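Section: protein folds

Sequence with per-residue tokens
===
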Amino acid sequence: MPFQRYATSSSMVSAPASTGAGQGGWLLFDVEGAWFALDIGCLLEIAASVRIHTLPGRRPPCLLGVGNLRGKLVPCFSLALFFNVHPGRSASSEGGSRQRALIVAADGGPLVMVVDEVAGIFDLTEGVDGMLGAVGGGMTRYVRSVRRWRDLDVFLLDHQRLLAELLERLR
């Protein structure tokens, strides 16, 4: 399903899907000071926030709870906890919350991934490939490649593996 909406400061606006999978359209976002990119082909929308309700009982630490998305309960995950990324210099830690909820299409319905900041959609095909060995924490198998883009090392995510693993954590 193509990218449908993009959240600005507090509202949602429609945006056309100008680039898709394989055409260089990547959503660039920050998680605890580490920069990631997700192919926009799996992105449904970006929300300024989703109210998350915690779940009772045992659950994986990365599962924050469920959110109400237009009358449907959807699972909400913290990518910082999922990747075991240690707190760094992120937008949310510098005061003023820029946290966003990435709503992505997964088998069985949408799910939410909470990130610290969204930089925008970029064509990352022009960057220089970096060293995959630079990937640390628990994210190695979810990263396709590392791209040196502008002054950032950006981890290009394998969205199929990532979503499959997030769904597995629900079982």
